[in-house]
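Structure (tokenized):
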């Protein structure tokens, strides 16, 4: 059969006629089929098999063609984007945060150069070895670095944010595969724990989270920049591959009212008082009654922004602003102002004060047991008599006490530029019973913050003018000085002078003798306040305080010192003396 096929084909080539017949594809296929069938070369079954093979090849070709169209046309953009994403690095460029200066130009918080170290795990050749090299410079645990270097689900992993520039340079010289560097900045606090609560702290992204760092975050932080660029297989930048590169805009500097020297003096003095009374917390304030500028303010325990891991829980809370408490006898100065304003009792006029005072089924007593007696107004203040001030304010009128509290805005927030100012409380006058008026006259049944008490004593020191406590003084880049409101709230100068005279007697002849400073007219009022608890008052636990100022001098600085939750009675007027004696020296305060 094979020979016949050869002869047939040979005949076709060797025929006499050299002319060539043009066939269509179909006629050519039929011709070939007829010849094969005539020579019994191809059976019908074989023909069908050949037909199926042709169809199979056609189907496969169609599948490949459709797949090619799908990849090249339909999903080309998606796959292109995925490929680009796999080789693209994206990160935010931190802006340099503005510097915080104290009133004398001392740096309280600033940003210094740093370097952020990151890696592309895809390019890391030996994670364990590279981790060991990083640990030698950056310290930490080798296993932690190895874990970061071994991540296979990303092309960007932070190794160390805001590392020291010198350490980053050491690592850069090692030329470790897959390790890269970004210029960055880091927040530093040159004075450590001094003023730490006031200044506050930032997170690793440079956002303020407490204190003035939070209050003025929008001013200080600036605007972060953005970087987006493509890198090749070995991490080298692809020319023309950067899609976005916007520079960061640095933040503004601010100057605040804090004097870091006075702040340090205050923190030392308060810590000594807290330790003396075996307490766990206390607060202190020094404020200028003329301007509202806060020279120093703190609450114990203190916050160290440079060592947050060792800082105590709650140390970031500036209780002098954020925690209202019952003020106790330091509030008797408010009652004294009402009594003098209403001329209800002369300074040397006597008032009968029984050993116990009944009111609405309650009994009021003095802190120290005594018998029935008559006391002058001076003696009431010197001895801090609860009964005496209650009866005197009753003569002056409870409504007048309520109005004075409202006039001096003791139940309103001060508006100080610090986050989280506490909201004070006092019953509406329509809810006052006789015992309410008695209690509030000596500072119970009402809550205020230490800063509010300091501001009230500022009203006395400043001739009846109420100022807004504040920290921000100016923005150095723009030379913009900030203005704050003040308001004349007391016109009766004679009443103010009489209260100051009463408060001077407290220091010279009463409970505040430790506050006296040789050569100066220190005035103020002590407090031993019971602590409200479970609808009553805690047994044998007190909040101690002293508030006052240096009268008849060229300064109107007022000072508050308080130690909280003391298990026995005491007197913190010595803390006032320590702080103000230092202020006299630092600010050249002299008597008028």
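Design, position by position:
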């Amino acid at each position: 059969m094979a020979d016949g096929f050869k002869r047939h084909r040979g005949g076709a080539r060797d025929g006499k006629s050299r002319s060539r017949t043009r066939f269509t594809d179909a006629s050519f296929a039929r011709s070939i089929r007829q010849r094969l069938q005539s020579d019994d070369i191809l059976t019908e079954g074989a023909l069908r098999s050949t037909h199926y093979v042709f169809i199979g090849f056609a189907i496969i070709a169609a599948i490949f063609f459709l797949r090619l169209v799908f990849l090249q046309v339909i999903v080309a953009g998606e796959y292109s984007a995925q490929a680009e994403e796999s080789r693209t690095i994206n990160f935010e460029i931190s802006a340099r945060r503005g510097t915080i200066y104290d009133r004398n130009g001392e740096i309280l918080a600033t940003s210094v150069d740093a370097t952020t170290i990151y890696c592309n795990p895809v390019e890391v050749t030996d994670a364990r070895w590279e981790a060991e090299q990083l640990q030698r410079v950056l310290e930490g645990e080798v296993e932690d670095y190895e874990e970061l270097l071994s991540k296979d689900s990303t092309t960007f992993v932070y190794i160390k944010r805001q590392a020291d520039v010198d350490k980053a340079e050491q690592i850069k010289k090692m030329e470790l595969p897959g390790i890269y560097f970004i210029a960055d900045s880091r927040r530093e606090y040159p004075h450590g724990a001094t003023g730490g609560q006031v200044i506050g702290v930032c997170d690793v992204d440079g956002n303020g989270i407490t204190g003035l760092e939070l209050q003025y975050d929008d001013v200080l932080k600036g605007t972060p920049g953005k970087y987006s660029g493509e890198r090749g297989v070995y991490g080298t930048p692809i020319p023309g591959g950067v899609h976005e590169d916007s520079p960061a805009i640095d933040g503004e500097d601010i100057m605040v009212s804090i004097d870091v020297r006075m702040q340090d003096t205050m923190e030392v003095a308060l810590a000594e008082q807290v330790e003396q009374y075996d307490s766990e917390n206390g607060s202190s304030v020094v404020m200028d009654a003329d301007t509202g500028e806060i020279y120093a303010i703190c609450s114990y325990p203190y916050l160290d922004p440079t060592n947050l891991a060792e800082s105590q829980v709650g140390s970031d809370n500036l209780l002098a602003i954020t925690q209202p408490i019952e003020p106790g006898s330091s509030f008797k100065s408010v009652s004294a102002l009402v009594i003098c304003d209403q001329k209800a009792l002369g300074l040397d006029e006597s008032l009968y004060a029984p050993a116990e005072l009944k009111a609405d089924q309650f009994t009021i007593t003095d802190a120290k047991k005594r018998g029935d007696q008559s006391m002058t107004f001076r003696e009431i203040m010197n001895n801090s008599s609860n009964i005496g001030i209650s009866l005197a304010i009753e003569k002056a009128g409870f409504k007048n006490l309520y109005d004075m509290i409202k006039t001096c805005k003791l139940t309103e927030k001060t508006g100080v530029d610090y986050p989280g100012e506490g909201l004070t409380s006092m019953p509406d006058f329509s809810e006052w019973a006789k015992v309410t008026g008695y209690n509030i006259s000596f500072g119970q049944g009402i809550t205020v913050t230490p800063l509010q008490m300091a501001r009230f004593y500022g009203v006395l020191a400043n001739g009846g003018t109420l100022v807004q406590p504040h920290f921000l003084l100016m923005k150095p880049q723009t030379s913009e000085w900030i203005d704050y409101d003040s308001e004349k709230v007391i016109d009766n100068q004679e009443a103010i002078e009489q209260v100051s005279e009463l408060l001077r007697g407290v220091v010279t002849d009463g409970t505040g003798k430790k506050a006296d400073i040789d050569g100066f007219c220190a005035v103020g009022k002590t407090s031993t306040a019971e602590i409200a608890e479970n609808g009553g008052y805690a047994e044998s636990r007190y909040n101690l305080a002293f508030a006052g100022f240096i009268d008849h001098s060229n300064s109107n600085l007022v000072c508050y010192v308080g130690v909280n939750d003391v298990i026995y009675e005491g007197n913190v007027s010595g803390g006032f003396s320590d702080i103000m004696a230092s202020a006299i020296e630092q600010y050249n305060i002299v008597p008028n």
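Reviewer-requested clarification: The first strand starts at residue 88 and ends at 93. The two ends are 140 Å apart (CA to CA).
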